[in-house]
Write a structure and sequence with these properties.
The chain is built from 5 helices and 4 strands, in the order αββααβααβ. With 141 residues, it is of the alpha+beta class. The chain has one domain (7-134): TIM Barrel (Alpha-Beta Barrel), CATH 3.20.20. A 4-stranded mixed β-sheet has the order 1-2-3-4, with helices on one face. It is globular and about 45 Å long.
Amino acid sequence: MTDKLKLKDLRKQGYRFVGNHSAIKVCLWCKKSIKGEDVCYKDKFYGIKSHRCIQMTPALGFCTHRCEFCWRDISWTEKKFEGLVDDPKNIVDGCIKEHVEYIQGLGGIDVDEKKFSEAKRPNQFAISLSGLSILLPIDTG
């Protein structure tokens, strides 16, 4: 996927890696919701509970667009997907596992206990972390 220094930097930023090309990062709105502080627009407008949503990408390190306005650091990304493609079930299960493990550290006296409990059973994915997920090869076999 990328070099060890970049992976170390991303982990320090809160990324957790799943398989060969996927990752999660608990978003600000999930954390705020667990603390009972605020929720994202998806919660306000569509009823998608921020504390039950996983921010993820199935294509960490791959993006063809190179948009000038992108706020992500794309200097290390590849323009074409290369490597082994993980099974979708393993991606989903791995993302849930990493997300739940990460949020364990958010528990404590300043959380909404009901939301914290519900957050351990995520039911939504926001595929918006980084990369371009349509780059993954499709197995038509």
